[in-house]
Amino acid sequence: MNLLVAPLIAGDDVIGTVNLDFAEPERLVSQDDLRLLETIVVQTGTAIQKNRLFERIEQSESNLRALFSAMEDVVLVITREGRYDQIAPTNPALLVRPPKELLGRTFHEILPKAVADRFLEKTLQALETSEKVQFEYDLPVGEHVFWFLASVTKMDEDRVFWVARDITERKKAEETIRRRNEYLAASAEIGRLVTSTLDLNTIFARTVNLINERFGFYHAAIFIVEETGFNAVLKEATGAAGKEMKKREHSLSLDGTSVVGKVTSEGVSVVVNDTTKDTLIHKPNPLLPETRAEAAIPLRIGTRIIGAIDIQSKTANVFTEDDISVLQTLADQIAVAIDNARSFELSQQAVMDMRELDRLKSQFLANMSHELRTPLNSIIGFSRVILKGIDGPVTELMQQDLTAIYNSGQHLLGLINDILDLAKIEAGKMELAFDEVNISDLANSVLSTMTGLIKDKPIQMKKVIEPNLPTVRADAIRVRQVMINLLSNAAKFTEEGEITVSVGLHSGPGGPGEVVVSVSDTGPGISKADQDKLFLPFSQVDASPTRKTGGTGLGLSICQQLINMHGGRIWVESEMGKGSTFHFTLPLFHKESDAHLDGNKVLLAIDDDMQVIGLYERYLQPQGYHVIPLTDPGRAVERVKQVKPFAVTLDIMMPGIDGWMVLEKLKSDPDTRNTPVIVCSIIEEYEKGFNLGAADYLVKPILEEDLVNSLDRLNADGSIREVLVIDDNRDDLRLLGKMLNDDGRYKAVLAEGGRSGWNLISSGNPPHAIILDLFMPDVNGFQILERLQADRRLRDIPVIVISGMDISSDQRKQLDEFGQRILTKGSFNEKELLTSIQRALDRIQAKKNSGV
């Protein structure tokens, strides 16, 4: 048997063999047989190879189809002209049109021009740079807008692959985060601004205006539940519609018939995102015709619903759950601010009521004390006349009776005087006449008159007074009253032993020296528990009906308040069985008018509040000024003459004599009229201030030399030329204008009335100086001064204030109202006030340095 084997070759590989078996054993294989076998082998190998390749191609196409069907991206082939050349069957739902409508057409035939231009630009960029180009774009597909991230890569010289991935959800998430961040930032800002005030109307106005402004809504309003609990009343709203609704006193019932009514009755937020589809709860307002969505947020304090914030938009479906969550947080802050403001108003009203009660009580006590003193003076006086025998001889029995009447009258008069003093102190009417007092002489005088207190007791009166004591700053009558009270108490409670009066010099807690007066006795002493109530009014150590000593319990309380008014201290040291010692201190007298005239800048601060003067001292002393306090405005002219200060700061709102009266006196006296005065007013309760900034003050009738001299004092560097005169009186305007123009150095610009004057000031070309009348019917001088101080560009313009100073009761009321207006509108804090005073002092220094 013959066998022929040939290799089966595909390319360079042997993939098998072809075997030929001959039946004839003797047969020889010829060359023709070999050539035939080779042909068969080659054809068979080629066929096998093609079959394998076909199977692979089919598998590859199957895999590719599976891959495309699994892809979510849009895969395109785009030509250089921006033509859709091929579209992979990936996600046709994301195509702007079906594939058959896109193939063969260009961007500009399918898309808006701006979009098509951008797409073609990116296609050419990928072809020219051969680099991947990525960018984001949005396209409307059907009824929705989708966002895509496109990756464009070069395929050949004229085509690119365009793969667009749907990133809509990511963009929505980013937009949600961005919107939430904006809402949170706006909410925080609104919360900060709203909670920075305690005025309810300001809170309401700021809330609606800031919500409208920061969030860009169509309308915002705030409703508050009235006390009856039946209606939610509109307190503030934005725009012309809001004004009209407030005018109509708009309110809504607390029920489900309106968005606000449902919120305020149930305490949960209500959202109507499409007002055209929900007409049951949303009630169209003819004043707000463009509303397409409405949301109301409850104002909650714990479980209480105090109102609601109503927000309306021109766009439907604008309110998201996230938005409402942020707005609810803001509403909670606003509710707290409203509740705080209400509490503050109630506390302020309570304080005012208490002050009024105190005032009525003090007034009643003072009136009754005066009514009682008149008959008592007669009783005491006439009994004294009879005791002296002026009306004839008296028997011994009559003398005993009259002496009892006289002593009882004196005792009752002392009690009434104590009540009167307390009433004066509590009403703020107690005035002290401070002067230089020799404390040694005063102590000796009191001791000489008090020896009669112990003439019937085995008590020795001693004194220990240091020699050469300095004088003190005090009201001699009131200090004498304190010493007599302490000595009377010592004599009253000491049965035997000694009473010692000591006067010495000691270092005060703040550094400068002070005089200490002590009254010691050898009486029974006072327990620690009783010492705590010793200085309380109407309080006594022994308050029982069986006590040995009488009295009202007011003496030590009055002593404490009198010493405090002197700037001193009073206290007691005592032990049971070892007697008691009462101490009080008085400040030393300083001759400031002589100590600071050479070179130093002396400032006389006139204010009824020592805390305010202390504020000036802390700020101005480091600047080289020496501040001299004056709490008694009635002594202003006297002190200015004594001290000859560099300048005077003057409070306006002071009890008794107000600042305007002080100004009148200063400017009416030839020795003090040229002293610069900085008019100030501080409202202590709110830590707000207002500095009128008047550089001078002239009193009508005004003489020509007064007016010109006042301007000359301001015009140290010759920069003042144009002077604006503001007055509502035409005759005064003409007179002042003539005075200035006739001088030749000043050009007068006349403005009739405050409104006209302010228009000239704010026109962009302000004057060099201003002469201003205070009392005008339209815009008064106070308002102009306030506006000048509020504008940094105008606050340094020197102002000379003029007034007739004939202040009627209506004008005085206007001053009070102006002070209240400063209280609620004030934008100057403590530092700004003092800085303003510093600027005024610097201007005065410049004038003095120039020799004017």
Please write out the topology.
Elements: E1 2-10, E2 13-22, H1 31-70, E3 74-79, E4 84-87, H2 99-102, H3 107-110, H4 113-129, E5 133-141, E6 144-154, E7 159-166, H5 168-194, H6 200-215, E8 219-225, E9 231-237, H7 239-247, E10 251-253, H8 259-266, E11 270-272, E12 293-301, E13 304-313, H9 321-387, H10 396-426, E14 435-437, H11 439-450, E15 459-465, E16 472-474, H12 476-493, E17 497-507, E18 513-521, H13 528-531, H14 555-565, E19 570-574, E20 580-587, H15 592-595, E21 601-606, H16 610-620, E22 625-630, H17 636-643, E23 647-651, H18 659-668, E24 677-683, E25 688-691, E26 694-699, H19 704-714, E27 722-727, H20 730-743, E28 747-752, H21 754-761, E29 769-773, H22 781-790, E30 799-803, H23 809-825, H24 830-849
Parallel strand pairs: 15-17, 21-22, 21-23, 23-24, 26-30, 27-28, 27-29, 29-30
Antiparallel strand pairs: 1-2, 3-4, 3-7, 5-6, 6-7, 8-9, 8-13, 9-10, 11-12, 12-13, 14-16, 17-18, 18-20, 19-20, 24-25
Helix pairs in contact: 5-6, 5-9, 6-9, 9-10, 10-14, 11-12, 12-14
